[in-house]
Design a protein that fits this description.
CATH architecture of the largest domain: 3-Layer(aba) Sandwich
Mean pLDDT: 93
Pfam families: Methyltransf_12, MethyTransf_Reg
Largest sheet: 7 strands, mixed
Strand order of the largest sheet: 7-6-5-8-9-11-10
Low-confidence stretches: 1-13
Domain Methyltransferase type: 59-156
Domain Methyltransferase regulatory: 229-312
Protein name: Methyltransferase
Strand content: 15-25%
Bound molecules: S-adenosylmethionine
Shape: globular
Length: 508
């Protein structure tokens, strides 16, 4: 049903369905937080899934479906479902499934309420990234109903959403842009451009709101650089409700869910670093009430986005297999100083470097890895995890089936890179997840597959579609400089990225 908004004197605004932007499709990102195996590693014996074994996974509001399709390719032993109300999104997900022969992926364009009423299996994992705070109260209630009906006892929910107080300063900016868009002319893209220009004019006239909130100007300048598909979905929905953690926790409690861990390694590291401060500030109340402690954490970090893992009552204890780690970054990527989430981390550089060097030749069990490291081994692994330079990986059983379906999807993605800059990751049969690869990297890999020169291949492909990579954020003006830039990128890619991609089975 098209509902749209009634703007003052402008009639119904088209381009929204159930208050959600549908005129412009969403971006084509890969979200690592959606990967099942890092979730299982964190949960240990409380995990509803065991490495490499079958499971049922559902993503609600999957956008273009790229993350979901990639996970289906990397885990052919499991079954994947998902819905999105935007039929163009669902068509794109089907295109990926058909092109890569993913018979374990089924997608639907039903809204949350109808999807909750559909005949579906009981899921081990239900994931929602960037959905909860972008839909209205009614849709949030429908999501809870879905979880109540379709999540197994002991099942896991991943929820990524905009959180308060991290967004507090920017709420009036969004309201201003929305008010401008409602009163604008033309299609959604034109209205969005008009709304940004309106905000910029106010800023230029020294509006008090911008003066007392200087970070809003920085944000507005950044927004003016972002593509319209991101802006449309991030800021121009009828519903946009950054939420306090305590309110989200209360809503999910009605489906028997409670917070069990942070979904991102960096946030878990920061959580440990902040735990003493939280007890000092919040006293016994924070010790007794984990939701209150989380609220304090959000004030301490002022982070804008949470990635939460909730678990449903009724989990049994599972045997925890030995941990195995794979490198997802090269030893040369290891920094001597780093910030994790919002805080600096001490990097035990030499030991961490030694661990990553060993992992270049392939995954190792944790015990095996530690036996070759000095006394800082545990700290080094924790740091590498927090920096997301290592990832848990799957047993070798089932590797060849995973490799086959990953290669089918990866071939499709390499071919897609010839004409489009989207879907910036490839599937890995080793981790059962994704690994970031940008468009130029995919063009280099396509050249290697067809036995052509990587630099010339990338150069000709890009020039053919009239596109050039940027240098220091600026366009390159001549073809010669473009070729030279691609040559430099190939040097780095061949040394640092290719060995990792090959070891992970994401490149041949
Ligand atoms: C901000 S986007 C996030 C997409 C994706 N999860 C991602 O992070 O890339 C929110 C998604 O929720 C979908 N959506 C909004 N309302 C919905 C509803 N009532 N039922 C199903 N999907 C909905 C939208 O079409 C959109 O793809």
């Amino acid at each position: 049903m098209k509902t749209g908004w009634t703007g003052p004197g402008k009639g119904i605004m088209q381009g929204w369905t159930d208050g959600y932007v549908t005129e412009i499709g969403y971006t084509y990102s890969f979200h690592p937080e959606l990967q099942p195996w890092p979730m299982a590693e964190v949960l240990g014996k409380r995990s509803p899934i065991s490495p490499g074994e079958p499971f049922d996974y559902c993503e609600l509001g999957f956008g273009q479906g790229f993350s979901l399709a990639l996970l289906a390719a990397a885990n052919p032993q499991a079954r994947f479902w998902g819905n999105d109300i935007n039929t163009a999104h669902v068509e794109h997900a089907r295109w990926l499934a058909d092109g890569a022969g993913l018979s374990n992926l089924s997608v639907s364009s039903l809204g949350f309420a109808d999807y909750a009423a559909a005949d579906l299996p009981a899921f081990d994992i239900v994931a929602l990234h960037g959905v909860w705070s972008w839909v209205g109260q009614q849709q949030r209630a429908e999501i809870v109903t879905f979880l109540d009906r379709h999540l197994k006892p002991g099942g896991l929910v991943y929820l990524g959403y905009n959180v308060l107080p991290g967004w507090a300063q920017y709420l009036p900016l969004r309201e201003l842009m929305l008010a401008g868009a409602k009163r604008g002319q033309g299609g959604l893209s034109a209205r969005i451009a008009g709304a940004l220009a309106l905000a910029d004019r106010l800023r230029a006239h020294d509006a008090g709101y911008f003066r007392v909130n200087p970070t809003v100007t920085t944000r507005l300048e950044a927004l003016m650089e972002r593509p319209v598909d991101y802006l449309a979905h991030e800021y121009f929905n009828e519903s946009w409700h950054p939420a306090y953690f305590t309110d989200v926790a209360q809503a999910l409690a009605s489906a028997g869910l409670r917070l069990v861990a942070q979904g991102r390694a960096a946030d878990r590291w920061e959580e440990a670093a902040l735990s003493e401060i939280i007890l000092t500030v919040g006293g016994q109340t924070a010790a007794d009430d984990p939701n209150f402690a989380e609220l304090l954490r959000d004030y301490l970090t002022n982070r804008p986005f949470r990635r939460d893992l909730f678990i449903r009552d009724g989990s049994g204890d599972r045997a925890v297999p030995e941990r195995r780690w794979a490198a997802v970054g090269h030893p040369r990527d290891l920094p001597r100083r780093a910030t994790v989430a919002t805080r600096p981390i001490d990097v035990p550089f030499d030991t961490a470097h030694a661990a990553l060097t060993v992992l270049l030749s392939g995954p190792r069990t944790e015990a095996d890895l530690l036996s070759g490291l000095d006394g800082e081994g545990q700290a080094a692994l924790a740091t590498l995890r927090a920096l997301e330079l290592i990832a848990p990986c799957l047993p070798d059983d089932g590797l060849s089936a995973r490799q086959e379906s990953c290669s089918r999807l990866n071939d499709l993605l390499l071919a897609d890179a010839a004409t489009a800059d989207r879907m910036p990751a490839l599937a890995s049969p080793v981790t059962g997840g994704g690994i970031a690869v940008d468009r130029v990297g995919k063009l280099f890999l396509a050249a290697l597959s067809s036995g052509t020169d990587p630099v010339l291949h990338a150069f000709h492909r890009l020039e053919k579609v009239g596109q050039r990579v940027l240098r220091d954020g600026k366009p390159i003006t001549t073809a010669d400089r473009h070729k030279a830039e691609l040559g430099e990128r190939w040097e780095v890619f061949a040394k640092r990225r290719l060995p990792i991609l090959q070891m992970l089975g994401a490149a041949r």
